[in-house]
Design brief:
Structural class: alpha/beta
CATH architecture of the largest domain: 3-Layer(aba) Sandwich
CATH class of the largest domain: Alpha Beta
Strand content: 15-25%
Shape: elongated
Radius of gyration: 21 Å
Largest sheet: 7 strands, mixed
Number of strands: 13
Strand order of the largest sheet: 8-7-9-10-11-12-13
Order of helices and strands: EEHEHEHEEHEHEHEHEHEHEHHE
Length: about 300
Amino acid sequence: MLVALLIVLSPAVQATPATAARVAVLMSARVEEYDEAVRGFRGAIPKEAVTVYDMDGDIERGRKQLDEIDSKLKPDLVFAVGIWALRAVVSRPPSAPVVYAMVLNPPSVISPDAKNITGASLNVPVERQIWLFKQLGAKRIGVVFNDAKTGYLVRRAQAVARDEGIELVTREVSSPKDAIGAIESFQDRVDALWLVPDETVLSQAVVQHMLLLSYRRKLPLLGVSSRHAEMGALFAMTFASGEDIGRQAGELAQAILGGRAVSDIPYTTARKVYLTLNLKTAQKLGLEIPPAVRARATNVIE
């Protein structure tokens, strides 16, 4: 059940047992992106003793591992990697402070009154996404969302957009079926469309309907993955590096192990972002892409 990985440093820099903090890593599963995050995390805390537990996708197994972590390891900090690990620590809070990584929309999982948990989310900063729309001259952006999943994000985006003279035209839904009708209600009321990272609106049928409206009304659409741009969205933004997400989490862990209160450390968004731009779609929509946007594109579909 326990996969132990002890970081061993060279004799010249090895931390002594008296100074090395104990860190338990609870992994949702052993997948490449999670392994990258752990690598980034360990790089940010090279002097700490790290023990890794693999949930293998089983939340109940994760809870039992947390029992073992508390009773036997007694760590100074728990690092939860992925959504299943986060759900496990939320349902069975450990004694030690928690830092998470590789999670979308953490406020939809964590209670607002939770005081002993923070982390590095996968979310792209809304400021960067609103910037894209501003560069295209968009004034009214259509957004369909589920308040329980991404209401916090939409409210944040509304505040950012308002400061830029942009309005978010929102439609709240509770199921993918509702989302189809909500998309149709936009018609000529918006001049751009935004797919937010909300599972309610990311089904194949909903994404396809958003793409159809984009083409019919010649509206630029921002997706949440490069796959959306490959399907025909004008552009897409996503996190660029699982390792850097893990490194961000490690920096938060260092601050906590150094004495800062967890409640004083807000969770972070992705600082390295991957922008895909579809110039074929731009041509179909009759749009001229500003040089500032092209300069930021990591990948261009021509």
